[in-house]
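Subject: sequence -> structure tokens, single chain

Hey, anyone have a minute? Need the predicted structure for the following. Not urgent.
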Amino acid sequence: MDYLSKLFNLNYKVAVITGGSGILGFEMAKGLLDAGSKVVLLGTNKEKIKNRIDLLGLKDDRLIGLKCNVLDEENIRDVNDTILNKFGRIDILINAAGGNVPGATVGLDQSIFDIDINQFKKVVDLNLNGTVLSTLIFAKSMSEKKSGSIINISSMAAQRAITRVMGYSAAKAAIENFTKWLALELAQKFGDGIRVNAIAPGFMITEQNRALLTNSNGTLTERGNTVINITPFKRFGLPEELIGTVLWLSGDASKFVTGAVIPVDGGFSIFSGV
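Reply:
Had a minute. Here:
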């Protein structure tokens, strides 16, 4: 245990998780808390954040939840001040806020020419601009102490051409480019203490994709079956299976790793189908 504690060095590190009320963000929070970190859960729905806090059942002051809209600069700045006033630092930033917007998806009876450009802008705004804006504000204190780990959330949709999810795919591809660009920028300007990486989850059942992948009776949809057929592990991932990668990227065990995009996908991204 002492060896692992020193390897990851996450005790009392302060982790900020945008999209903390979502399934993936919530699992990441659990892992970081178990590793001894302090965690700030951020989300747009105050009641949902409170419910997540209650589920975690932590009775000390290592966990707080705050309402935060990643597209509202003034709101983010206020939240950043609150975090720094309480904990004095931000060591880890996980940009987990995001998701798909139905209007930026090509319907079964549609083509790309039916896409609503305003809905396309909305999904890019949420996933890309929300990540960039959050980083500009929450990571500023990292630049001042020249230390920290930023973890962005990409997707298999950025790595392979996945039908229908046009807006989401474009936004997540941009996230991967931003991750690499920012890793270079921060290393050159602030030294080797700040790292920027991304996780690209494979297909996991969440609130947003459940109806696309599974039927109401629990069986798989045609799309769900297709995913399983080209996933070598022949199953969907579990949200808690992201925790190991999150802890590794958050702590000192990965301190020579920056600009990387780590797939956690059961082999989906490497399988050609033959």
